């Protein structure tokens, strides 16, 4: 919190000068009275009569259409270059200030909270609108991105993702511990959980690592899904709350002490990036389950937590992060289509108005299903999302990094109304700081290696040709 306030003060000092508007700032619209010309490489672009924005490129796209600026995604390097000059390799303390300065400086020229709502990712019917473009989007998972200790590694990973045409990147926004690391430890942790006093680590081995991820995503034109807790015990998770506050992972959802600290943590993270356009959405949990619970437990927790997040931040979307279990029209009644699998009914949760879109995952071999069953799983979720008029994010999928298995799921997702984006599990890369490879869990697709082309390059090309 403290660094955030300092950052805002700095922003006020640097924000006032320009007669030209910088990247993504407002440059026109009804009620606007600031400068209307943009810095080199950007054009003042009309999204609607109320909002003109400095957008990459030199020609002006037609106003208020959603498809004419699609080229931005196919040339991510132009976005990268344009915005990275001020944010390349900042120290971790400057990260927040550069992120915040954009918004605060824009505040001067607009009456609404800034950046204008047009600059934030949002739903548009059954698709997502990102930077003014509505289409189907490709993405990936990088749970470890916020745990990297080298800024150069984060930049290298995001540069590769952007060069590949990926857009939405899901990262863990949690890293919970029950033992307080020594003050000299460089191990990354975000939150220490204890009944006798929890701590949120805003230091250089704490949320400043996530700050850098947000800053680098901004520089590379990527959009982040940031998740607040794990169902599983990796990086702490609900079990770390249970260790601190008692109960069980099943009562975690209703345990007052656990929920109060969970909300304190959410508030700490959301307030750091509530004005960042690099955030795609906040996510309640990774794969929450409550086996054997009444389905109202997860429903009520998801409804109240998402309401809470909206009360803190009305700029960003909120989603659940669940696997998509429960009975579904058109399903075959197999285990994943049963209420027992997750202790919730995915379809019921679609009516929670403070959840902007729905998520589902796909791991047939973990669930005892044949691989081609995945197409039914994708299409039934899409149909339910279409019926609920809410986009579905196909958020994780893995079939042993085998294109024969996974390409059909990708094709089904792209052609199913109601599915708005897919994020393969998981991205892999070689980190420059150690010349070493990132986590290989059997489903990792390493950048430009192995099955990279048939899993990623071809799919991105198919998406771009379906949404030119
Ligand atoms: C995650 O979900 C499973 C399935 O309901 C449950 O058994 C487990 O206790 C949960 N939490 C953890 C920490 O594994
Ligand atoms: C949403 O779904 C739940 C669970 O099926 C149901 O109890 C509730 O009445 C629904 N609410 C609305 C507003 O449709
Ligand atoms: C990929 O999956 C297909 C279908 O299950 C299988 O026939 C093939 O052997 C797999 N390829 C590899 C390299 O494992």
UniProtKB/TrEMBL annotation:
EC class of the enzyme, as a word: hydrolase
SUPFAM superfamilies xrefs: (Trans)glycosidases (SSF51445), Cellulose-binding domain (SSF57180)
Subcellular location: Secreted
Pfam families per UniProt: CBM_1, Cellulase
Catalytic reaction annotation: Random hydrolysis of (1->4)-beta-D-mannosidic linkages in mannans, galactomannans and glucomannans
EC number of this enzyme: 3.2.1.78
Biological process according to GO: mannan catabolic process
CBM1 domain location: 19-55
A GO term for molecular function: cellulose binding
Source taxon at top rank: Eukaryota
InterPro entries recorded: CBD, CBD_sf, GH, Glyco_hydro_5, MAN-like
Annotated GO CC locations: extracellular region
PANTHER family xrefs: MANNAN ENDO-1,4-BETA-MANNOSIDASE 1, PTHR31451
Family per record: Belongs to the glycosyl hydrolase 5 (cellulase A) family.
Name this polypeptide is given: Mannan endo-1,4-beta-mannosidase A
Organism, as annotated: Coniochaeta ligniaria NRRL 30616
């Amino acid at each position: 919190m403290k660094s955030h306030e300092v950052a805002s003060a700095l922003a006020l000092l640097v924000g006032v000068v320009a007669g030209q508007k910088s990247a993504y700032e407002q440059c026109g619209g009804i009620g606007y009275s600031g400068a209307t010309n943009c810095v080199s490489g950007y054009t003042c672009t009309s999204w609607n009569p109320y909002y003109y924005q400095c957008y990459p490129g030199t020609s002006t796209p037609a106003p208020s259409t959603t498809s004419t600026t699609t080229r931005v995604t196919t040339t991510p390097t132009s976005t990268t270059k344009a915005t990275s000059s001020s944010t390349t390799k900042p120290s971790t303390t400057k990260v927040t200030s550069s992120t915040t300065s954009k918004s605060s400086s824009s505040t001067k020229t607009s009456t609404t909270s800034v950046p204008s709502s047009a600059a934030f990712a949002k739903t548009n019917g059954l698709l997502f609108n990102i930077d003014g473009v509505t289409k189907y989007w490709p993405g990936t998972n990088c749970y470890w991105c916020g745990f990297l200790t080298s800024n150069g590694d984060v930049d290298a990973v995001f540069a590769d993702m952007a060069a590949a045409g990926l857009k939405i990147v899901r990262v863990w926004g949690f890293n919970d511990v029950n033992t307080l690391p020594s003050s000299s430890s460089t191990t990354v942790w975000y939150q220490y959980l204890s009944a006798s006093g929890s701590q949120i680590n805003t230091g250089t081995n704490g949320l400043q690592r996530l700050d850098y991820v947000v800053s680098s995503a901004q520089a590379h034109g990527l959009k982040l899904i940031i998740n607040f807790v794990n169902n599983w015990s990796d990086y702490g998770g609900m079990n770390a709350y249970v260790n601190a506050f008692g109960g069980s992972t099943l009562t975690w959802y209703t345990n007052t002490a656990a929920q109060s600290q969970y909300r304190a943590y959410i508030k700490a993270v959301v307030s750091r990036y509530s004005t960042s356009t690099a955030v795609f959405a906040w996510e309640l949990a990774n794969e929450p389950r409550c086996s054997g619970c009444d389905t109202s437990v997860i429903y009520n927790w998801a409804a109240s937590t998402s309401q809470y997040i909206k009360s803190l931040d009305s700029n960003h979307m909120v989603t659940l992060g669940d696997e998509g279990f429960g009975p579904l029209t058109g399903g075959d009644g197999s285990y994943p289509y049963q209420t027992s699998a997750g202790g919730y009914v995915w379809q019921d949760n679609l009516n929670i108005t403070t959840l902007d879109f729905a998520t589902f995952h796909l791991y047939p071999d973990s669930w005892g299903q044949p691989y081609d069953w995945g197409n039914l799983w994708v299409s039934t979720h899409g149909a339910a999302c279409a019926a609920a008029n809410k986009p579905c994010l196909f958020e994780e999928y893995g079939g042993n990094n085998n294109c024969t298995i996974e390409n059909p799921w990708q094709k089904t997702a792209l052609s199913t109304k109601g599915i708005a984006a897919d994020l393969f599990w998981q991205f892999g890369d070689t980190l420059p700081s150690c010349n070493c490879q990132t986590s290989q869990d059997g489903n990792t697709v390493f950048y430009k290696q192995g099955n990279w082309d048939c899993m990623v390059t071809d799919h991105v090309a198919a998406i771009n040709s379906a949404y030119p």
